[in-house]
Amino acid sequence: MIAGILALQGDFAAHADILGSISVGSRYIRRPDDLDGIDGLVMPGGESTTMSILMESVGLFEPLRRLIIDGMPVLATCAGMIMLSAEIADGRDDQISFKMLDVSIKRNGYGRQLQSFEKDIWISGIGPAPFHGVFIRAPRVIAAGPRVEVLARVEGDIAMCREGTVLACTFHPELTADRRVHSLFVEMMRDGSRQTVERKVR
Amino acid sequence: MVLIMNGIDDAKTYSGSGQGGTVHTDADDGDQGLAQVGRKVGTFPVKRGLAEMLKGGVIMDVVTPEHAKIAEDAGAVAVMALERVPADIRAEGGVARMSDPSLILEIEEAVTIPVMAKARIGHFAEAQVLQAIGVDYVDESEVLTPADRENHIDKWAFDVPFVCGATSLGEALRRISEGAALIRSKGEAGTGNIVEAVYHLRSIVGDIKKLGSSDRAERYAWAKNLAAPYELVEMVAEVGWLPVPLFCAGGIATPADAALVRQLGAESIFVGSGIFKSNDPPARARAIVEACVGFDDADLVARVSRGLGEAMRGLDDASYGARLSERGW
Predict the structure, then answer these.
(1) Is B299 exposed, middle or buried (0-12, 13-18, 19+ CB in 10 A)?
(2) Minimal C-alpha gap between A86 and chain B (Å)
(3) Whole-complex ipTM
């Protein structure tokens, strides 16, 4: 199994490290032909405006959109989550999004860097121990549709959620040594590749 | 790859002269107070975290809100708000100070990407002002006229993160020991000449490599020769990289310059005068952003380098005059 990590800008290397530490191979995605044969996709943290400009200029937006529509498991953190959200409340006019997660999201929703924070959160389905959430100029979910399954909250706001094969966090699990969020994503990748095999057999 | 992860863990346990940071208690922030109890702000992981998010990107010097918009439209990951770009500071002389807060606030209003601003070396009161007006990163910068001949700012005392320049590994580690969460190689700002940036970057990255092959006994001598804390020398030797990201600044003027320093190990770049002293800033800004991402793809760098018009004229080595990179101790 190979996870493709969108590697145009941001903390993509931290995702590769943590996946490597649970023995999952990864490949950096910088152009469309890098997408062949991947089983999952990671959209990292970074600057969503920069990433959206670069995705269009290298011709990755449309092929990525197709893969996500076809049910490719996705782990999206912070800026990555913004790029999947149905509505970006205060985005730039030209900011593009895959609109595959039915949430309305506000960029820098907790304020500027001085309001960036660390705080423990509790995530359902990964065991009772708290997860150390690192929120860097984090986006804030201001509304979510009925299909969105809430997995964790911080101060009442959605911090982690899932819709279909999309798993999204407003914080950065890749910046801590706790591998449980990435393990959950790897499980989704396994389920996804099993279903693909079953489809082919049928 | 695993090394970088270790770096994060090590950086989290690294305490230096103090971890800094503030824990919100229920007395903070009025109505929001109760919800925010338990938040830890201004910690080293939070400071370093923003630098992680800026990796692979371009941070551009801007002197007006209009410049800031051009930079954001071109794909900059952050802007550095200042009154004069380094080329003008160099040409005009005089004492270069922190920018007028109203200019920085206007630039904060104009863009949604992070805004950085410069304080003079050792001028902690300027840094306090920059923190008070909410800048996202403070650059304790040799481009401004130093305010202290011996001491840099105690950066642990702040919640806002700091970036500092370095010409060598020892200088980088001294700044990290003072609390810097991001290092940039200094280069020679305002010259449009990449030679000093290459020299500094090769020096820092080269010494990291050499230190990595040292044995424990040799690391004490490394610490002495670098004039840096032993604990940090040990960490660099074990991890194979600085405990914070390493970016490059000073003299980048073309997409190929960006590709050069990225291939030499810089994780992101600062472009000062190189964009707004060229004759087509929006096109050059976009081209440098694309070359910074596709730095190892010569076809891409070739494509984005075409038809950008004249780069900034710049200065050759013989005509620098005073070297800004020699400021800092």
Answers:
(1) exposed
(2) 19
(3) 0.94
